[in-house]
Amino acid sequence: MAGTDATTLPSDREARRHRWEDLTTWPLMLAALVFLVAYAWPILDPTLPTAVDRLAAVVMRGTWLVFLTDYVVRLRLAHDRPAFVRHHPLDLLSVAVPVLRPLQLLRVVTVLDRAIGRRLGSRVAMYAVAVTTAAVGLGALAILDAERDAPGATITSFGDALWWAWATVTTVGYGDRYPVTTAGRGVAAVLMLCGIALLGLVTASLASFLVDRYQDEDEEEDQARDDARFAALHDELRELRAEIRALRRPESL
Amino acid sequence: MAGTDATTLPSDREARRHRWEDLTTWPLMLAALVFLVAYAWPILDPTLPTAVDRLAAVVMRGTWLVFLTDYVVRLRLAHDRPAFVRHHPLDLLSVAVPVLRPLQLLRVVTVLDRAIGRRLGSRVAMYAVAVTTAAVGLGALAILDAERDAPGATITSFGDALWWAWATVTTVGYGDRYPVTTAGRGVAAVLMLCGIALLGLVTASLASFLVDRYQDEDEEEDQARDDARFAALHDELRELRAEIRALRRPESL
Amino acid sequence: MAGTDATTLPSDREARRHRWEDLTTWPLMLAALVFLVAYAWPILDPTLPTAVDRLAAVVMRGTWLVFLTDYVVRLRLAHDRPAFVRHHPLDLLSVAVPVLRPLQLLRVVTVLDRAIGRRLGSRVAMYAVAVTTAAVGLGALAILDAERDAPGATITSFGDALWWAWATVTTVGYGDRYPVTTAGRGVAAVLMLCGIALLGLVTASLASFLVDRYQDEDEEEDQARDDARFAALHDELRELRAEIRALRRPESL
Amino acid sequence: MAGTDATTLPSDREARRHRWEDLTTWPLMLAALVFLVAYAWPILDPTLPTAVDRLAAVVMRGTWLVFLTDYVVRLRLAHDRPAFVRHHPLDLLSVAVPVLRPLQLLRVVTVLDRAIGRRLGSRVAMYAVAVTTAAVGLGALAILDAERDAPGATITSFGDALWWAWATVTTVGYGDRYPVTTAGRGVAAVLMLCGIALLGLVTASLASFLVDRYQDEDEEEDQARDDARFAALHDELRELRAEIRALRRPESL
């Protein structure tokens, strides 16, 4: 447990990784926010001068470098590197695949995660709300970016985009607005998948809550029955002991 | 536990709050009904003379004052005020946010709640029916109010509005009618959320019912197995006792 | 238990009701089939001569009388009449409300029910398939009847109607076909409700199956642990008995 | 149990069937792939010369013969033939019904099944992904085949077909693209059913996972309580034994 060369001790490396993650939480949150502004602004205001547009692209590359550095450092400090890669797939995707960079915003969820603690029910609810909000918001931005200037497009303002995203994620799908470009359809396909996951999470949470309640009622009955059974055994043992004592008493009488 | 100044005793204040709630149940139901009429009438009949329209607005303000007063009284009588605010979020929203005033109608659910009693299954079913009915009815009124005079609107009669609301809450979403105003889309977004909740509740109730049934079958097997195990223990103890008695009998022989 | 006036004995009346239900099963199935033909034919072939149309109406009235008679007889033979009414709501609705007469076809489900036996899983699956098939088939007939001649109608053939009904019951709702009449929208509203119930049943059945499987695994572990615990108790009791025997043996030695 | 003619021994026949299935796994996978290419190519490229088209048809007939042979051999080697037919319905359908031949591709799932092992959770997830992918891919090919040249068709490219298939299987159903032919509507009906099954599987998996988690927590409490109960019994038995020993000790004192 106490080694001579601290830098090579796995548990020590893991501890350093956790210290690194604690230290970088808020800077990375800030980087995610800067990324969001640089990503959203040129989409929301297409009349921006080219210079600002280019600045936004540079800023986005900068935040990407920040997240890439963070990933590399954490990977190097990880005790079991292949396991680290497997357990943090979204982190890898968001730094490796350019179109998935908005996933860096999920870092916000990680922070909320720590704040909310370990209760399963509330964590599931929080993930559902966070992922849905992120999916609708980012989906609206991405679809607007893809569709706005396409011929025959029906989604041409952020209001349209938000409305379409919400109708899609709830699987209502009126069809008054729909993507016509390949990129837009890709965004839509991901949103539909989020919608199915959302429906599933809402239903599953409710179902597990109800099942848990029913079982608690059954459980109480079971406990009462078991209590009675064990009490019967104890009674019998007590009588046995009385009989054994009776064996001794004649001598003392 | 025994105090001198009864008015400051928490348990006494709580008791007074419950008496207040018992007393105001039916008056508040009536106020909710009056509110519904004053809210729905001008929407359903847009040819009403301006005077009646204004009267309806005054009546709605009056019912709002009634609900505001009720909320303030209950809050003052509450033992733990922050807890009261946290546990009655809909009551607060319905008096604080003007567009959410129709939520005052949910007071009807509270009354049904008491009538139906505590069985979890039937309470969930009742909430599903009540919330869906309220969502569809109020959603239809609100969407008609928002859309009727909008250019390019497809929802222009109460029949259209009800039809659209039902197609939305079931997540079918044909798209033959859809909102075009921002207010209408807001109403639609809430209805879609209700739809997901409805689907979730229906599924979760069925699932928990089925799981409960399966478990009752398993349960019976388990009980039979446990009965056999405890019976075996009792048999063994009975034999033990017989052997102990046999220790005494030689003397009597 | 053995009475003098057999006709007034409740258990005897119930037995006669069950004999009646056994005897009338196949005649009522036939009546339901005749009803289906008389209901569907004029809808599927609108070029029928008026005489045939009228004949179909007469036949439908005849089958209704058959079902009405059956309901009255069963009600009279029932031991607890209010309970009979409460437990057979669809039977009452199908004879009392003219537009719900197609529900008489659900009699087919009752017969299947007996054939399939009591296993919960397969009964739920069978109900889901039967109700969905009935809802889609009857919904298509009803919507075609309501829409065919309406101005602006998009559902004008049985193929369209079936296609629309299936897209509705699965909550997909393309919106390429949709009802425009009030009667048609009523049919659609019921179909959407069936769709939600179908989704709920499919999901709930799968969920309860999976939960049951997981629990069987847990169950086996629990049983093994309990077996070990009871075996430990039996061991201890056996040793106790050995010690008691050792008390006797010194005398015999 | 021990026979003279080994070829007629049921267990020996079953062993030979399993050896046959092991041997043919990869050749059948290859045949399925060849089938997929011969099926998809003429649909994806309608400008193919007639000769290639005919070649594709011949190749498809060839792969069908391969699968038919495999089915017949396995059926003959099966110990209980009616049970074999009942337990492999998709194998039978894919060789017996021409339009269902693409189901032969599900053979790929069988292979994955062996690779992934027996854990229920991951098997359900894998089935969901495999069936959805197969349904969307094959559905897109089939709908394109059915719709491309139909008058008034809205699905005329593979991109459209994939987009439509995904919007259908997630039950979003915008209605910007929809089938107009009877064959196309048949494909759509099957896809919608897959969509409901997908929603059900996702939800059910999540629900069973959550229920399992909740129960594990309850389980730990139960185990602790049971441990305490059994420990109390053991204590009492130990005391009993001490008393019995005390019966003997007086002699030794």
TrEMBL record, chains A, B, C, D:
<feature type="transmembrane region" description="Helical">
    <location>
        <begin position="55"/>
        <end position="73"/>
    </location>
</feature>
<keyword id="KW-0406">Ion transport</keyword>
<keyword id="KW-0813">Transport</keyword>
<dbReference type="GO" id="GO:0034220">
    <property type="term" value="P:monoatomic ion transmembrane transport"/>
</dbReference>
<dbReference type="InterPro" id="IPR013099">
    <property type="entry name" value="K_chnl_dom"/>
</dbReference>
<feature type="transmembrane region" description="Helical">
    <location>
        <begin position="124"/>
        <end position="144"/>
    </location>
</feature>
<keyword id="KW-0812">Transmembrane</keyword>
<dbReference type="InterPro" id="IPR028325">
    <property type="entry name" value="VG_K_chnl"/>
</dbReference>
<keyword id="KW-1133">Transmembrane helix</keyword>
<feature type="transmembrane region" description="Helical">
    <location>
        <begin position="23"/>
        <end position="43"/>
    </location>
</feature>
<keyword id="KW-0407">Ion channel</keyword>
<keyword id="KW-0472">Membrane</keyword>
<feature type="domain" description="Potassium channel">
    <location>
        <begin position="154"/>
        <end position="211"/>
    </location>
</feature>
<feature type="transmembrane region" description="Helical">
    <location>
        <begin position="187"/>
        <end position="211"/>
    </location>
</feature>
<dbReference type="InterPro" id="IPR027359">
    <property type="entry name" value="Volt_channel_dom_sf"/>
</dbReference>
<protein>
    <submittedName>
        <fullName>Voltage-gated potassium channel</fullName>
    </submittedName>
</protein>
<dbReference type="Pfam" id="PF07885">
    <property type="entry name" value="Ion_trans_2"/>
</dbReference>
